[in-house]
Automatic annotation (TrEMBL):
Organism: Thiohalorhabdus methylotrophus
Domain UvrD-like helicase ATP-binding: from-to ranges: 14-286
PANTHER family on file: ATP-DEPENDENT DNA HELICASE SRS2, UVRD / RECB / PCRA DNA HELICASE FAMILY MEMBER
E.C. numbers: 5.6.2.4
Alphabetical list of InterPro entries matching this protein: DNA_helicase_UvrD-like_C, DNA_helicase_UvrD/REP, P-loop_NTPase, UvrD-like_ATP-bd
Name of this chain's protein: DNA 3'-5' helicase
Keyword tags: ATP-binding, Helicase, Hydrolase, Isomerase, Nucleotide-binding
Residues where ATP binds: A35, G36, A37, G38, S39, G40, K41, T42
Length: 617
C-alpha cells in the first residue's frame, strides 16, 4: 500500500470519530485520552497506529510499541491493525502486555544485567502469594515485617538495593535467595520489571536502541498501571522525544490492590508533557443502559461529563434488573431456563451472553453447568486451565493465532479470511520481502500444499484425540518451532513455549474428542456456541450483547460497600460490558440485597424483580 499524506488520511472500519478523538489522533507529541466505558479508547489506539503507519509518521524500520494489560487485549489490538494495514506495516506494530514487554527485554538482554542481579538463563517465573512470603520470613526467622510489607517492599525497591535499613536488608536477602539459592532463578513479574528498570539505567546503549526502535508508544487501560510499571516506562522513554499515548478511564480502575497509581493520569501528563483529551461518546451501549451507567459513574466521580449514547436498543423487555432468588437451586435453574429461552428464540447467540462473577468461577461453574446442559447448552469457563495456561490466555497467544487459521482451512473447502490470515502469518514468519515476487510465490505454494495435506487428513478421519494430536504436531513441524520462537520473543525460552504449546495440544485434543466434525471441534476450541463464564477482571475490555452477573448479595460480594470505591469500579466494569442488557442475580440463601446500590440505581431505571417470574410466559 502506498503511503498517504497525513491531511488525506481517514479513519478505517468506522464511519466517524468524535471531534475530540480526531483532535487527539492528529495531535503532535504525547497525549492522554480519558473517556468512559465503550467510548472507543481501544479503537482510538488502533486508528492512531494505522494513521502513524500509513502516513509514514512512523517510517520503516521504526516501530510502534503498544502495551495492554491482558494478553487477549494485546492480541485484539494487533489484529485490528493487521486488518487495516498491509503486512509490512502491520509487522511494525508490537503489541505486548506489560509483563511480556519486560520479559522480552530480559530474555534479549539478560547478559547485560549487572552482577549480582543477573539471573541465570534457566529462570522460572513464579507468582508468589502469602504462603511463599510467609515461608521466606520463617526460614529467615524474620518477625519484624509481615508478608504484605515484604511483598510491597520487593515491588517498591529499585535495584541495586542499598542495604541500609532493616527492610533493605530483608529485600536484599530475598533477591539473593531467589537468584542464587535454587537450581534455577525464581522471578516474579514485578522482579523482572525491576531488573529491566535497572538494566536501562545502567546501560545507555540498550536504552538508546530501545528509544530508536520505538518513537511511538501506546498504553491502553492506563488507569491500572502500577508505580513500578510507570517507572519503567519513564526510564525507557522520558526525554527521548517519543510520542506517548495513554488511554484510560479511572472509573474502571480495579487494580489498586495490585498497586495501580491513584494519580497516574497527572503523573503521565507531567512526565511526558502530554495534552489531555476527554471523549464523551459511548458506542457500545444504548441510551437506557447508559443512563444507569451514568448513575454509577457520577457516584464514582461527581464531576464527570454527560455521555452521548451511540448504541441502538434492539431488545424488548427489561434491559437492566436485579434478579431476586430465594435459593441457589432456583437461581441456577431459572438462569439456565432463561438463557436457553433467549438463545432458542434467536434473540442472542450463546457466546454473546456472558456470565460474570467476582471470584471463584470454578465453583460457580459446578452449579450452573448442569442447569445449562439440561437445555442442551454448554458453558465455557474461561478461567479453566488447559495444562498450565487458562483458556482465555491461550486464545490470545500468538501460537494459537498462527495455528487456528490453518486448522480452519483444513476443515473447509474455502475460507478466504483464514487463507489471508494464514498467508500473512507465513509471510511474517519467513520475514519475506513484500517486493520479492519469487519468495512471495514460494510462500503461497508452500501454504497451498500444506493446506492440501491438512484437508487430506481431516477428510479421511473424523475428529479423535489421536488425529487431533497428529494434526497439532504437523502444524508445529510445518510452521517450525524455531521460527515461531524467533518471531515471538515470549517464546524464546523453551519453558514458556512449552506451556503454550502444551495447552494448545491439550485443548485441541479435548475438543476433537467431543465433536462430530472438525469444524465443530474448531468452534469448540474458540468457544463459539458456548456461554462464557469469567471474572470481572477478565472481562475488562470485552463486550457482550447480554451480561449476567452472579452473586450480587451482601455476603458473596461483601466488599461492595460505599466506602470501597474500587468495588464500585468493579461493578461499573461489569455493568458496562453490556451492549443491550445487564442483569445481576441475588440469592437470599447467600445474603441480602445491597440496598445502597439499589437505591442509587433505581431512579435511573434499574429494578429488582422476583427471579421466579423470569421464565413465566
Ligand atoms: N468511532 C466509532 N464508531 C463506531 N463504533 C465504534 C467507534 N469507536 C469504537 N466503536 C465500537 O464501540 C465499541 C467499544 O469500543 P472500545 O472497545 O474501543 O471501547 P473502550 O473505550 O476501549 O471500552 P471499555 O473501556 O469499556 O473497555 C466497540 O464495539 C467498537 O468497535
Amino acid at each position: 500500500m502506498t503511503l498517504v499524506r497525513p491531511e488525506d488520511w481517514y479513519p478505517q472500519g468506522v464511519d466517524e470519530l468524535e471531534p475530540k478523538a480526531w483532535e487527539a489522533l492528529k495531535a503532535a507529541g504525547s497525549v492522554l485520552v480519558t473517556a468512559g466505558a465503550g467510548s472507543g479508547k481501544t479503537e482510538f489506539l488502533a486508528q492512531k497506529a494505522t494513521y502513524f503507519l500509513q502516513t509514514a509518521l512512523c517510517p520503516s524500520p521504526k516501530r510502534i510499541l503498544a502495551i495492554s494489560f491482558k494478553r487477549d487485549a494485546a492480541r485484539n489490538l494487533a489484529s485490528r491493525i493487521e486488518k487495516r494495514c498491509p503486512p509490512d506495516q502491520a509487522r511494525r506494530f508490537d503489541s505486548y502486555t506489560f509483563d511480556a514487554f519486560a520479559k522480552g527485554l530480559l530474555d534479549r538482554f539478560r547478559a547485560a544485567i549487572p552482577d549480582p542481579y543477573r539471573p541465570s538463563g534457566e529462570y522460572r517465573i513464579i507468582f508468589p502469594g502469602r504462603t511463599e512470603f510467609e515461608d521466606f520470613l520463617q526460614r529467615r526467622e524474620i518477625r519484624s515485617v509481615n508478608t504484605k510489607q515484604l511483598e510491597s517492599a520487593i515491588i517498591r525497591t529499585r535495584l541495586p538495593i542499598r542495604r541500609n535499613g532493616r527492610l533493605g536488608r530483608i529485600v536484599q536477602s530475598y533477591w539473593q535467595e531467589q537468584l542464587e539459592e535454587n537450581e534455577e532463578a525464581l522471578l516474579s513479574f514485578p522482579m523482572i520489571n525491576r531488573l529491566i528498570d535497572y538494566l536501562l539505567r545502567e546501560n545507555s546503549t540498550i536504552k538508546r536502541a530501545l528509544q530508536l526502535t520505538y518513537p511511538v508508544v501506546f498504553i491502553d487501560e492506563f488507569q491500572d498501571t502500577t508505580d513500578t510499571q510507570f517507572q519503567l516506562i519513564r526510564e525507557a522513554f522520558e526525554g527521548s522525544g517519543a510520542a506517548l499515548t495513554a488511554v484510560g478511564d479511572d472509573k474502571q480502575q480495579i487494580m489498586a490492590w495490585a498497586g495501580a497509581m491513584h494519580d497516574g493520569f497527572e503523573r503521565f501528563q507531567d512526565a511526558f508533557t502530554a495534552t489531555h483529551f476527554s471523549l464523551v461518546s459511548n458506542w457500545r451501549s444504548h441510551p437506557e443502559l447508559v443512563r444507569i451507567q451514568q448513575a454509577i459513574a457520577s457516584r464514582i466521580d461527581p464531576t464527570i461529563e454527560e455521555i452521548e449514547a451511540r448504541g441502538t436498543k434492539t431488545v424488548a423487555g427489561h434491559i437492566a434488573a436485579i434478579w431476586d432468588f430465594s435459593n441457589r437451586e432456583e437461581e441456577a435453574a431459572t438462569i439456565g431456563a432463561w438463557v436457553s429461552q433467549e438463545i432458542f428464540s434467536g434473540e442472542v447467540k450463546p457466546h454473546n451472553i456472558a456470565l460474570l462473577v467476582r471470584m471463584k468461577p470454578n465453583e460457580v461453574e459446578e452449579e450452573i453447568r448442569p442447569e445449562l446442559a439440561r437445555h442442551g447448552l454448554r458453558l465455557r469457563n474461561e478461567a479453566r486451565a488447559v495444562g498450565d495456561i487458562p483458556i482465555q490466555d491461550l486464545l490470545g497467544e500468538d501460537l494459537t493465532e498462527i495455528f487456528l487459521p490453518l486448522l480452519r482451512l483444513g476443515a473447509s473447502e474455502r475460507d478466504a479470511s483464514s487463507w489471508n490470515t494464514a498467508l500473512r502469518n507465513f509471510q511474517y514468519l519467513e520475514a519475506a520481502d513484500p517486493q520479492n515476487d519469487f519468495k512471495q510465490q514460494a510462500i503461497q505454494q508452500n501454504l497451498e500444499s500444506f493446506v492440501r495435506v491438512l484437508r487430506g487428513i481431516m477428510r479421511r478421519n473424523p475428529p479423535t484425540r489421536e488425529i487431533a494430536d497428529e494434526l497439532a504436531c504437523q502444524l508445529l513441524e510445518k510452521v517450525d518451532e524455531d521460527k515461531l520462537r524467533q518471531a515471538f520473543p515470549f517464546y524464546r525460552r523453551q519453558r514458556d513455549f512449552d506451556r503454550v504449546w502444551g495447552g494448545f495440544r491439550q485443548l485441541l485434543t479435548k475438543c476433537a474428542e467431543q465433536s462430530p466434525t472438525w469444524s465443530q471441534a474448531i468452534d469448540e476450541f474458540v468457544g463459539y456456541g458456548q456461554i462464557p463464564l469469567m471474572t470481572i477482571h477478565k472481562s475488562k475490555g470485552l463486550e457482550f450483547h447480554t451480561m449476567i452477573f452472579l452473586g450480587l448479595d451482601n455476603q458473596s460480594w461483601w466488599s461492595l460497600s460505599p466506602d470501597k470505591p474500587q468495588e464500585l469500579n468493579a461493578f461499573f466494569v461489569a455493568f458496562t460490558r453490556a451492549e443491550q442488557r445487564a442483569f445481576f442475580s441475588l440469592s437470599r440463601e447467600h445474603g441480602r440485597p445491597v440496598t445502597w446500590l439499589e437505591n442509587l440505581l433505581e431512579p435511573a431505571g434499574m429494578e429488582r424483580i422476583h427471579g421466579g417470574s423470569l421464565t413465566e410466559s
